[in-house]
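Forum > Structural Biology > Help requests

Title: Can anyone predict the 3D structure of Carbon-nitrogen family hydrolase?

Hi all, first post here. I have the sequence for Carbon-nitrogen family hydrolase but no way to get a structure on my laptop. I'd be grateful if someone could post the structure tokens.
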Amino acid sequence: MAKQLRLALLQMNIEAGFPDQNLAKLKSLLEEAMQGEVKPDVVMFPEMWNTGYALTEIEQLADPDGEATIAFLSEFSKQHGVYIVGGSIAEAKADGVYNTIYAFDREGNRIGDYSKIHLFRLMEEEKYLQAGEKQGRLVIEGEQAGMMICYDIRFPELARTLALGGAKLLFVPAEWPNPRLHHWRTLLMARAIENQMYVIACNRMGTSGETVFFGHSLVIDPWGEIVAEAGEEEGILWADIDLDLVSEVRSRIPVFEDRRPQLYFKG
Ligand SMILES: O=C(O)CCC(=O)C(=O)O
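Reply #1:
Sure, ran it for you. Structure tokens for Carbon-nitrogen family hydrolase below:
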């Protein structure tokens, strides 16, 4: 039986340092996503949607243990019978602040979480955030999926490891700014083509200080075709995907059977 999923990516502006305002924006987009005749199977949000990159105040602004976010998202997913890949948020733990995604199934159960493992030095993330120490995996409608965050897409080893572990979908929340639209699109495309998997990437839009975020959330299929791409405006990017295409593409060009791992660098 074909496995189709309807995705809704909430490409939103984020006010750095104003979690209540950002939550209100997220709620209104979530409600909008649920209003149509055909409901999404999965919704996702951008990176650090609660606080933005208010890094100098991040300890005070981050959600303690993610409790308030988890309670809200779990309730929403149960109420609407929808999977949520919950962006990422700034999450305050005893040893510091993490950039963390929580994922939920249609019954509101937490089915995965992932804290960004590659911290982005260009924005001094390593000074304010703790790096996660494990890969992000979840199962959606019986199919394996992986999670990475923003800068992580520059590390093809991580996406390949997730694909080797069975992932057919890769979720990527981001706050990826100008002037690197070319890198964003090319890296996402490459991760999809080389791993023959769906790449589902939700970027923010709007500005934060001098930094401009271009949106361009993307859904790319395992053959590298763009299923849907947003512009720079705020709104919901819709996409319908068919998971059977993953095995079809993997048998068309059997990359995973042709690998020679014994010859590769073991870093
Ligand atoms: O790698 C890049 O160019 C952008 C990464 C980034 O903005 C982030 O990880 O927050």
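The CA atoms of residues 95 and 130 lie 8 Å apart. The chain has a mean pLDDT of 97.
Shout if anything looks off.
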